[in-house]
Design a protein that fits this description.
single chain, 205 residues, alpha/beta, Spore Coat Polysaccharide Biosynthesis Protein SpsA, Chain A, Nucleotide-diphossugar_trans
């Protein structure tokens, strides 16, 4: 019987939320917070280990989530950019003796993309474990994305100010999964307020 690919899910949550003015990881959404919502959605996915990367406000956020069955990684160099958080997580997790066929990278500030989206992405990945599975966000491809094992070395070499989107752009062998207008990044108080008033929010919470 063909084995099911083991996936490492890296959730990026290291930023300082400077545009928001308060840690967006702790913004409330329904009866939970952005960061706990991201973790709970990830925990629904089978055959996946979860690693969350923290940086700014590390102790406060760690204390908020350390009861979950996940690996928490501290990126002390978080200010240098998203690439450093990806490198930090990949370096720590792929050395633990687990053989991963792919790495799923997601952000805590895309609360409308969760389990259902990851499930579709994984189904595409199971069909061909050599292809990058990326999310179509309007006219661009980005995260959430699954990167097969042949790209792990490239993830470890990402420049600090480049995220996974930069790597995705370098390759043509990419399968896209539409975000269906749910790929909303929440970076400002105005965007957060709009989310709470949106039809998407009333559907989910």
């Amino acid at each position: 019987m063909r084995s099911i690919p083991k996936i490492l899910h890296i959730i990026l949550a290291a930023g300082s939320s400077s545009r928001m003015g308060t840690p967006k990881q702790l913004l409330t959404i329904g009866d939970t917070t952005f960061i706990e919502h991201a973790i709970k959605e990830a925990l629904k996915v089978a055959n996946t280990n979860i690693c969350i990367v923290l940086g700014a406000n590390y102790k406060t956020l760690r204390d908020h989530i350390d009861h979950h069955p996940i690996k928490i990684v501290q990126n002390k160099d978080w200010q240098s950019g998203m690439g450093s958080s990806i490198r930090c997580a990949v370096r720590e997790c792929i050395q633990e003796g687990v053989s991963y066929q792919g790495i799923l990278i997601s952000l805590i500030d895309q609360p409308l993309l969760g389990y259902e989206h990851y499930k579709i992405m994984k189904e595409y990945f199971y069909k061909d474990e050599t292809k990058i599975i990326a999310t179509k966000l309007k006219n661009k491809l980005g995260v959430p994305a699954i990167l097969p094992s042949q790209y792990f070395d490239e993830l470890l070499k990402l420049q600090s100010d480049f995220g996974a989107r930069h790597l995705i752009r370098q390759h043509n062998d990419v399968v896209s999964v539409s975000a269906n207008d749910r790929g909303i990044d929440i970076d400002t108080q105005e965007q957060y307020n709009a989310l709470l008033k949106s039809d998407f929010f009333s559907e989910k919470w």
